[in-house]
Each structure stands twice: as C-alpha cells, then as structure tokens.
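Hi team,

Filling in the usual template for the complex we talked about on Friday. All components are listed, including any nucleic acid strands or ligand strings, so the model treats them as one assembly.

SUBMITTER: L.P.
PURPOSE: interface mapping
COMPONENTS: two
RESIDUES: 713
SEQUENCES:
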Amino acid sequence: MISYFLRRLLGSIPLLLGILTLIFFIINIAPGDPTARYFNPNISPEVIAQMRTNLGLDQPIHIRYFKWLGSFAQGDFGYSFGQLRPISEILPTVLWNTLQLMIVAVVMIFILGMLIGIVQAVRQYSVVDNVLTFFALFFYSMPSFWLALMLILIFSLKASQWGWPIQFPASQMTSVGYEFFSTGERITDRFMHMILPALALGVGGAAGIARYMRGSMLEVIHQDYIRTARAKGLSERIVIFKHALRNALIPIVTLLGLYLPILLSGSVLVETIFAWPGMGRLIVDAIFQRDYPLVMATSFIAAGLVVVGNLVADVLYAVVDPRIRTE
Amino acid sequence: MTNRHTGPSAGASPILDVQKLRTWFRTDAGTARAVDGVSFQVRPGETLGIVGESGSGKSVTALSAMRLIPSPPGEIQPGSRIVFHGDRGTEDLATASEERMRGIRGNDIAMIFQEPMTSLNPVFRIGDQIMEPLRLHQGLSKKAARARAIEMLKLVGIPIPEQRVDEFPHQLSGGMRQRVMIAIALACDPKILIADEPTTALDVTIQAQILELLNRLQNELGMAIILITHDLGVVAETCDRVIVMYAGQVFEEGRVDDVFRDPRNPYTEGLLRSIPRLGRRTERLAVIPGVVPNPLDWPSGCRFYARCPYAWEKCLREEPPLADLGSGRGNKCWLEEFPERRAEVRARSGGFTSEGAVSGMDAAGGASLAGEPPVSPDDHGAEGDL
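RESULT (copied from the run log):
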C-alpha cells in the first residue's frame, strides 16, 4: 500500500515537470513584457533595455528555461517582478488564505451535498425529492460569480438596509480594527467573513454532489445486502446510514480529489469579488503583469494540488472499499 | 429434513399459520396480484417446501411473512393473517407494528437468499455482519458477540473461523458466502428459517453441501425451515411437506412422499413428468405448454386452464376450491369432483406429452422453471430443469 503511493508520488514528478515546462513556454511566448508597465514618454528606451537585462529577459528563451529549472529544482521560486520581493515571502500567507476558503467549501460541499442526496434517495419521487432536485439543478446551473454578487446584494447590502439582525461583510478576510479585537471577537469576525465566499464557492459543487449522491444511494438501496440488513431486524436508520451509506460513498469520495482543482479555479472569481487575498487573485495579477516567476510558482501550486487531490482520492477509495485495499 | 420418515408429529400445533395471504403490487399498469389467497402452516422442526415456476409468487410469499415487501408498491391486503406462535404468545404479523417486526426479523424468523454473491455487504467484515443481529437482539458485548460469531462460522463448516471472521465477503467463494449467510440467519437461534432458493446460484456439488448443512443444522438446532425452490429434486430430498404454487395460489399440498408418488393436480403432474430420470428411456420429456399468466390480469376460472390437458369448460367458468383430501393433503382442481374426466383424457392418450413443446427439446431446455421468464409466450414450453 505505502509503496504504491510512493510510486504514484514519484510518477507524478515527470507529470508536474511537463505541465510546468508547457506553462513556462506559453507564458514567455505570449505577447507582453514585465517591463511594459514602466513604459512612459519620460523613460528612455535605454532604461527599459537595462531593466530587461537586469531581469535576465535579454537572454534566449531556452537559456532562461534551464536557469529557471535549475533554481526551481533547488527549491528557489525566485523573485516576483510585480511585487518586487521574494516569492517565498508572498506564497505561504496567500496559499493559507485560499486553503482556508477551500477547506470550508469542501466540507460544506460534501456534508450538505451528501445529506441532500440521501434524503432525496430515501424519499424518491416525493415532493421533497422534486423540490430539492429543482434547487439542486438551479444552483448547479448558476455561475459562481453571479451567486457571489447575489449573496453580497442580499445578505450584505440589503440586509443592512433592511436592518436584518445578521449581516455579513461583503469583502476582505477581517474587519477594520481586527488587531484590537479579543480572541473571541476575532474568531467570530473571521467566521462571518468566511461564510459568503465559501457559500459562493461551494453551493454549485454541493448541488452536484447531491445529484451524484442521490444516484449512488438509489443504486445501493436496491441491492440484495440491504434486504439482508433489513432481514436482520436492523432499524431503517442503521440500514441507510451504515449499510447503504458506506457503499454509496465509494463513487463519491473519488470526486473529492477532482473537486480541489475545480475549487481553485472557482476561487479566482470568488476571491476577486470578495477581495479575498488568496491564490486566485495572485494568479490573475501575476499573469496580467507577466510576472513570470510568480506565474510559475502559482502554477506549480495549482498543478501540485491536482496531483495531491488525485492521490487523496485514491487513498480514500482504498479506505472505503476493502476490495481495492487487498490488491 | 432427516426426520421426514418419522415425521414431525402431525398433531403438533403450527408455529406459523398463514391464512388467506394476499400481497398485491400497485403499478402504473394496474394491480399485480402476486400472492392471491395463500394459506399454509409450518410446524416446529419440520421442513416445508414451496415449489412453483418463476412468477408463481413463492418468493413474495416468503418476503410477506417477514414483512419485507417494499411498500409502495407492495401491500399485504387487509384480511390476510400471518399468525406466529412465539415466545410472546400468538401474534398476527400481518398487522404487527414495524417496531415489533424488527424484533422478530433475524431473531425469531430469519431468512437466507438466493444470491450469496450479493447478499453480504461488501464493505464490512463477515464477523461484523454476523455480530450485528447478536448485538441487536441478544444485547451481547462486542467480545461475546465475536466469540459467538466464530462459533457460528465453525458450526456452518467454515475452516479456520478465527481467521475468516476478519475477512471481507470478496475473499470468500460463493458456497462459503452462503454458509456465512446461514451463520448470520441462525446466530440468534430462530424458530423459523426461510430459505429463498438457497442453492440456485451455486454449483451442483456446492448445492448438495449446503442442503446437507441445512439438514444437519436443523437436527442440531431444531428450527422449522421454509424452503423455497423451483427444483423438485431438492424438495424430494429435503422436505417433509410441500405446497405447489401456481399463479399466486396454492394448487396442491401434502406430504412430500404422497405428492411425489401420486400427484393429484394436473400442474404438479406436469412438473413431475417434465423431469428426466436416470435409467428410464424416454424419447422426449413431457412439457407444460405456454407460460404462467400475467399477474396484472389473472384469467377467471382456473388459472391453469390454458395450459391444462384435462381442462374443460367448467374450468374456464368457475375457479375450483382447494379440496381437502385429509391428512394434510389438498388439491385445487375440479378433477377431485369429476374424476371420470381424468380417465377419459388419459384413455384418449392425452395428458402431458412432449407434443406440448412447439420448438422441441433444445428450445425448452432451460426455459421456464429455471428462472427467468421465457422470451416469448408462445415459443417455449415449461420444462423441469433437473
């Protein structure tokens, strides 16, 4: 088992290298230049040329590639052209901010989605099932940026205009004056800032999981071993939540790994709308500024997340299905 | 089973008394009357066989006794009685609360199913699956339940039970899994074991082992067995009494020896005549022409009319009663009142013949009795698959 995952991990190295090489050449060949934002009638072309030399952009692309690869292999992400500081200084905070959002969204997606799916499967074709199906399809179809705007409109703007008892902040991770809050106030403040972006990021996914879960659960409920469980005299609660759920989970956990990259791309829009200082925004800014080292560093994180996500899915798959475990 | 020659005392009061059981399914196409007025009794320690073709309602009868009919669409109709004489006195399971039924299932009445490959939950260890009813009904501790599970595995003849107890179902063969199913069913020492085609999905050699096992366990534990099968050979070998079901009704009942020696009902006769026998040279086997009618629309009169070589217009118009022939023997046929008809048809060399099969032996090979309904209603005859 362990050797299998080590092999998988080693096997993902060439994959990552391929992805990063491709991105390196695409972003470097793309029109535009990191020095473009300094173009100005008052700055002479010689100065610009000097800047390009300083950044190493005057060298041919293959030389730059191998230089980047060399330092990257040593764990050196380099220096951000846009923010003018080492990337190793920027990345940890930003990554952690995004991970917080993603973890909350993933937990919400799976708990909410699975519960809805189970209810729908157990009450197949009932009014509850039909109503939930309608809402699931609605939220599944709505783009996350529209949802984000609607959430801000209703729960932040209108809530304060109409004087609702609960109002959610529309942007940032913390309120003004956060540094002077007590610990309890800080936790509440963080939590309130988290809810709307996590909802916007996760509701579509939760609706999708609910659909998968309903289908998976319906299939399992009609299996012979469910009849066996009932024939033992077990209560319906144990039949559904123990015997049926454990089997219905098998196809669902695989989706967990696939949802990580989907959430990362979703966070680009959601973080922009909620002014959330995370990876999503960082990637967009880096690309627009042609901040090559930062683009490579963030791409590496994103690709790494996909690989890790798939590995996590495989581990979970083996955890829930003993038939996989023994092989 | 083995005591069938001495027989369970005929006078013993039944432990299960099913009266006029009707289980109907409401579908978009109409109401399917899958079980339509079935009565039978099971006495302590005896083995009752229920035989019939696919679609005759035998499995639905068994599931009804456990109240495991999925509802909707299935429903046990008012007026049906499933009288169980257990530790708590006499109860009618047809109207018992769901909570009471949960106390009976797996504890007083247990069941094993046709498909051992899919009847065990693939994600739980077999030990846990055996321990579940023990912990539920007998309130055993984890340790005690585990010890009992190992004991049960040993009882059903699984080698190295201490090791097997921690294995998953996919690590066991089909026969082993059916043994585990039997261990689960018998863990709480039930009074009745319902076995719904327990050997149909198994190899012939394994079939014999499983029947042998059930036989031995009945002697050791003394439970009554209701054995549902389409295999007349299994009935002959294992049962004390048999009821023959057709189209949701009991057509004939009686002691196995009596029924096999002298089948009174034309349907039973047809079933027995369609079995090949060793040492008897026959050109072709007899067949019962046609298929079981549609439960959405049972024919009026006798439901076997269209397939019966003895039928005449009385059978088309009026449904025969289940005539009581004494000593537990019953036959639902007008021939009991008009015995001259049987002789008359036989004199014309009628009765069941191989001519019933339109497309001959090969087509009839594994058709009706074996399991799936035949492809086309007028193509195949029904034929025993022994």
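MY TAKE: Chain A has twelve helices and no strands. Residues 183-221 of chain A form the longest helix (39 residues).

Thanks, L.
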